[in-house]
Every structure is written in C-alpha cells, then in structure tokens.
Amino acid sequence: MIGFGMIFDETYRPVFESRAREPLFSSATGPVEVRLAAVATRTGSRVARFLAYSQGQPATLANFSGADAVTQLLASDVNVVCIATPDDRHFSAARAALADGKHVLLEKPSVLSLAELDELVRIANDRGVLAKVVYHKLADPDHKKLRTLYQDGVLQHVNNGYCSLLEPKSISGGQFAEWIAGRNPATYVAVHYLKLIDFTFGPNWNLDRVSATGQRGLVGTPDGPTWDSVQLQVVYRHPDTREAAFDIHTSWVTPDNFPGYVEQEVQFRFDNAVWTAHQRKRGVELTVENRTPGELKNTPNHHYNATFLEPWGERSQRGYGIEVIERFFKEVAFVEYGGPTHARDERLASMRALHYNDLSADRNCVAIVQALEAILARSVAGVLGSNVKVNGPGAGLTLYEPGNAQPLVLYEGRV
Membrane-spanning residues where (predicted)? Predict the structure, then answer.
C-alpha cells in the first residue's frame, strides 16, 4: 500500500483481513494468497497505530516512511502496489511501481493529465503488468442494472443527466485538511459519475466539450485556488450528431450533521424513459438516541460498505466498495496463475480488455479532469467562462477563453 488513510481503512483493510482468513480461489488459479506486505507513507504514524491496535498482526508488515518510502517499498517483497494517496500524488508513485514491474491499482482519479496517462499506459505495456483504477460505483447494483437496461435497449438514447455528490465539512476540514489546499471536490468525487456516464452509455459516442464553474470562500479564501463546490458540465455527441449533456455538482462543505454520510443522487433522461436514483435514500432510516446523525447516520448506505453479523454467525464486512478491490486481485491472480506460462500474454490481454477498470480505458475521464483543472485555474486568474473543446481541428484538448482569439492547447494528441 502507498497511502494508509481513510480509503485504506474503509475498503482495502477488509479485503486483506478476509483474504488472511481465506485465500482467493477460482477453478483457473486454485488458491492464491493475498497478503499485505508493506506500506509506504510520509510519516508511518498511522501504520504504527494500526500495528499496535492489531497487536503486531500482520507480523511481517513492513512500515516505510519518509522521502524514500516508495523506493524502499518497491525494493521489498511485493508483487502488487495499491495507491491510495491524494490525487496529485498518484502519478509519480504509479510510474515508479510500474517501471519496477509491479501490477498497480490506483484510486480515482487515476492521474490529472493525459500526458501522465499516456506514460503510465506505455510503461505498463512495456513491463507486461496490469494498471487498473478503482471505480466502485460501477459495481453498485443499481448502476449495474442501469447499464444492463441501456445496453439491452430498454432505455434508449440518453439525452441528458444530472448528478450530485455532496461531502460533509469533516472531509475538507478534517480528514483531508492536510492536502486540500489548491484542490477541488470535482476532481476528487465527480470522477465517480464521469466514469459511470462514460462506461454505462458508451462506447459508441464521442466526448465533445467541457465547462465548469464553482464557489470559494469557506475552505479557503474567496479568491484563492481551493474550491468549496464545483458545477461541471460535460457534453458528448452521439453518432447521429445529437448531443447528450450531463451536469455534475460536487461539494465538500455540507453540514456534518447531515443525515447521511454523503448526499448522492442522479437523474438520466432518455428518448423513452427517465431513471432517477438516490444513493442515500434506499429505504432504511435509523434513529439512535445520542448516536445519530453523528456516529451513526439516519440514512446509511449498506450496499457500499458495512459490517454484518451473518445468519450463520460469522462477522463480515462487505459491499461494492470492497468488491471492486477484491476483483482486481482476482484479475492479477488470473494473469499470473490462471494457466501455463506461455499463455500469460493472452491472459494479460484479456484482463486489459476489461474497460470498466483498465487504465487505458480512462482517457475520457482524465481528459475531463485535465480540462476541469485548467478551467478552474483560469477562474482563479480572473478569467471566467472558459470551456474546453475535445478533439477539435487543432488538438485533443483546447481551452477557449471569452474574448481571447488565441486558444490554449492543453493536449495535442487525440483523446
């Protein structure tokens, strides 16, 4: 692991704990052990507390910290590297791990520019390893059903949509306060919906343009580079030239006493249908004296990640946030142990063809992130209303400012 914060505790830790009790298994690979062997962080303090709390288990966990922690981790006995650091630190760690021949799993957003994406995909191809991205919302049962209905033709021709994801103030003011300066909530969480839209309704359309605005003044100064909320619009073009526009609103300044952990809702409109979903309001409401809505939430999402006492007496922690990480390890196991050595390249190609999580299939999402970051940077500089054209006549990403006849090329290659 590179990074050992909230994301590790919520989703990676349960995977390692369950695999310590029982190995992965498939008919192709047989039993495959998955063990957390090393962690690289800036200070090592969280890992030390984890080891103390778990009474030294796992006993063989190496705790690397400091400026050369990643280098030390890669020199240790690891085969796979999972990167769960702040988004602007993903690239350097992933590049080092892939160059060292490790399979890599990145938290979203994978990277912040297409140039970085190109380099990581090239290194992964050269080294013959997997490079994957965590997009757990694709495994949400409601979202899987949405894609099923669209791909089966029940929902016809998506026209537009609205997505909202609002994080509590404790995220920006507490858990992520160390790295949040100069950042924005859209890059951090809008990518959930960017991938959902791109994967669910694609691939037979083209990303066309990106625009964005937002608000500042709560997390940082009103004229600074740290954003409270962002409103992002993404437009795709269908083969019949009709457009599909999606508005994605994100924030990390929702009151902490909000009844749910995160406020999430979507609406997608089609030629023949409307799909509306609320990720928080799934039928469960809970009130516990002196415990809700702080320690416990009034409207919990038990589908994402929850602890359970199973009917057969076993304690478990599961959900789609955990499922996608375990699925990645199954893909790595299949590449390495799913058949004869001479057929490894064929197995590797089959796992890379899984566009729901392969880094090479992240181009549209990274293009939108790069465009968004550039638009917000221009806003901080006092230039409002910029937009980015995708795959225009001159370049893959071109930023246009109001009143400026000279566009700025962000990425020359085709998206």
Answer: none
